[in-house]
Every structure is written in C-alpha cells, then in structure tokens.
Amino acid sequence: MKNSRLAQKLRELRKAHSYTQYDVATMLGVVRQTYSHYETGKRVPDPETLYKLAGFYNISVEDLMHLAIELDEADYFDAPAATRSSHALDAFLSYTNNPANQKKLKTLSSSEKELLFYFSLLSPENRREILDFLKIKAVKTCEKQ
User: Fold this and answer.
1) How does pLDDT run across 14-31, given as a tens digit for each residue?
2) Which of 44, 75, 99, 139 has the greatest count of CB atoms below 10 A from its CB?
3) What is the fold, at CATH topology level, of the domain defined by 3-77?
4) Closest CA to 59 of 29, 90, 35, 18
5) DSSP class of residue 46?
6) What CA–CA distances, in Å, run from 64 to 9, 16, 57, 61, 71?
7) Under a CB-based contact definition with an 8 Å cutoff, are residues 21 and 14 in contact?
8) In the prediction, which pLDDT does 83 show?
9) What pLDDT does residue 3 have?
C-alpha cells in the first residue's frame, strides 16, 4: 500500500465532508497530530482505525482500502477492477473539490452535497420524477406534524 495514496484519499474525504482534522481525530479517539500523520503519509492507520474511518464516511472498508491500493501491473495481472462505488466516490470527491462548485456547496451538509451531486447526474426527466416524489414525501411529512 502506498501511504501517499491513502493519505490523499483521507484528506479528500475529510474535505468533501467539510470536517477539520480535529473533528476526525476526535471521532477516532486520537490526537489531531496523529490524524495529521495519516493525511501526510507519515503513519498508516491500524485496521481498527480504518474500520472507524470507513464507517465515519459511510463507505465500506473494502472501498476505503481499494482507494488506497496502487497495483503494479507487472506483479498483479489478475488485480480486481475498481468497484462502482469507488468510481462514484472519486466522481463525488472531484465534484465537491471542484473550485466552481465550492461556493454553492460551502453551506450544505454532507448529505445535501451528496444529494446535489447525484441529482446533477440525472436526466431532466428523472430529475422531474425525483422532484415530484420529494414533493409528495414533504407534504405527507407536514401533514403528520
């Protein structure tokens, strides 16, 4: 495993969710400096910490590790293909880190950012169907209150 690739992905995940290093370190139960070393590649998280990170970012440990592995084709001809969820995460991180999107995403929660990202991938017809569905759900929720 290349530490720099894992470090880069940890940094991207944290920034995509608008967390500080302190926030993530607190969740992990480590000091900020320890977490900082994970993002700089000076240290590699142990398996328990990787499990906590995957849960924190709502991705599987497999996907977290897949993002961190760089395979040398000369050694691994039968390496597995990237999973659909890892491609989706890469696309989501690119979307949220794109400077053109930074301003509009700045005040949104992580779930709102995710919703906006996936909504942007839909056709106009599918967007209309989703909006109609959301309106129905919102009206039913308001009626219950």
Assistant:
1) 888 888 999 899 888 899
2) 44
3) 434 Repressor (Amino-terminal Domain) (1.10.260)
4) 90
5) -
6) 8, 15, 9, 5, 15
7) yes
8) 54
9) 63
- For residue 35, with 0-12 CB atoms within 10 Å meaning exposed, 13-18 middle and 19 or more buried, which class applies? buried
CA distance 94 to 67: 14
Domain boundaries of the chain, sorted by first residue: 3-77
* DSSP state for residue 116 in the 8-state scheme: H
The amino acid at residue 67 is: L
Cα 66 to chain centroid distance, Å, stands at 13
Say how far apart CA 81 and CA 84 lie, in whole Å.
9
pLDDT of residue 89: 64
In whole angstroms, what is the distance from residue 18 CA to residue 77 CA? 37
**Amino acid letter, residue 39:** E
| Structure tokens that stand for 95 in this block | 């979307």
Q: Summarize pLDDT for 115-135 with one digit per residue, the tens.
A: 888 888 889 999 899 888 888
How far, in Å, CA of 52 to CA of 94, rounded?
23
Q: Which two tokens stand for residue 106?
A: 């700045």
